[in-house]
Amino acid sequence: GQALTVTKLKKMKRDGEPISVLTAYDYPSAKLAEEAGIDVILVGDSLGNVVLGYDTTLPVTLEDMIYHSRAVRRGAQNTFIVTDLPFMAYRISAGDTLRNAGRIMQETGVQAVKMEGGADIAHEVDTCVRAGIPVMGHIGLTPQSVHQIGGYKVQGKEDADVRRLIEDAKALEQAGAFAVVLELVTDQAAKAVSEQLSIPTIGIGAGTNCDGQVLVYHDILQYASPYREKRFVKTYADLGTTVREAIGRYVRDVKGREFPESKHGFAGAGQEQQGAVY
Ligand code: KIV
Ligand code: NA
Hints:
The chain has 2 domains: 6-237, Phosphoenolpyruvate-binding domains (TIM Barrel); 240-268 and 274-278, no CATH class. It is 41% helix and 13% strand. The protein is built from 11 helices and 8 strands. The chain has helices spanning 6-15, 27-36, 47-50, 62-75, 94-108, 122-130, 146-149, 159-175, 187-196, 217-220, 239-255, and strands spanning 19-23, 40-43, 80-84, 112-114, 135-140, 179-183, 201-204, 212-215. Helix 5 links the parallel strand 3 (80-84) and strand 4. Helix 2 crosses helix 4, helix 4 runs parallel beside helix 5 (94-108) and helix 6 runs parallel beside helix 8. The longest helix has 17 residues, at 159-175. The protein is elongated. The model has no long low-confidence stretch (mean pLDDT 95). Belongs to the PanB family. It is found in: Cytoplasm. 3-methyl-2-oxobutanoate binds at residues 45-46, 84, 114.
């Protein structure tokens, strides 16, 4: 099918149609997500954790995000793709933010970028949107600030925190963001923010009241994700076990001379060829 647009995403909220978002980081994950009918692919800087093996997202670079986004684009040519701006690719100055967001758009062919922050980055969001770059916001638990926050903690427990989340979300909407991710916030906070915005909220660990949901590819597939089990993740397959056992069988076959068999080899002239032709 045809890729969504920011206009269609906002219409999905008005129509009450839930928006499905999944992360992907390379050609096969993107291809499978598109074939499965996902609405939006996020090339998240969570690739730092689940693909590159870092403890946090802070070491992820703009070059990393561009490299992975290009592969995702090749795998999912008809899906709306959003790429995270990594730590330090924004918040320096609006000019730097625009230059970096512009590089992502120009060098990868994705349709939008995402930034962590609220009212404090509204000016940078506005600068990108005016230049024609759609921006998704991201508030609540913002992993690039994990050291400032002091851990991966649920946000929006006190009334004052809920009020601040609403103000941040409204500032992003005002600045022209087309959607806002709500990460690890209470049900009540997500409900209040979702009701007060005309743009969709995309929840992760944000309860049942968001306009869409996002989860991490490696988490829902249990694909060697380094994370402990998380309350907000539902797992749909156990690829880690499947892959580990498959590789184990391959190793045993090689050690036991069970693989290769004659059908896996190539016959010379005048000899009978078995098996599939290469
Ligand atoms: O990097 C990421 O995967 C994200 C989602 C969890 C929203 O930002
Ligand atoms: Na992210």
